Amino acid sequence: MKLVLLVVETTSRKVLASQAVASSTAVASVDFADSVINCATFTAAFAAIYNDTNGDKLCVVLDFGGNKTATNGTFTISFPIQVHRLMQL
């Protein structure tokens, strides 16, 4: 499965590398290598991870908690992203 990170409001797409999955009885998590976009000039509040192998199905939306801006610099998303709850069923 090829998972891709798309920074919303840009055309920046990065294949996520080094997928490490951990799970227990009630919790599952995944860690990726940090995603780095060089020479970036944009403002984004969200990113999406989607499955590029299986019809571009959305896996998760990342909320940066407000606008993040890069001006001809490096934009880095560090994983794992700490969250309290992604989804409750």
List the keywords.
89 residues, mainly beta, four-stranded antiparallel beta sheet, two-stranded antiparallel sheet, 0% helix, globular
What integer is the average pLDDT?
Answer: 79
Gyration radius (Cα, Å) is: 14 Å
Helix and strand content put the structural class at mainly beta
Fraction of residues in β-strands: over 45%
Helix fraction, binned, reads: under 10%
Q: Describe the largest sheet.
A: 4 strands, antiparallel
In the sheet with the most strands, the strands line up as 2-1-5-6
| Unreliable runs | none
- Give the number of domains: 1
The run of helices and strands is EEEEEE
Number of strands: 6
Q: Separation of termini?
A: 24 Å
**How many H/I helices?**
0
Query: Which shape, going by the Cα principal axes?
Result: globular
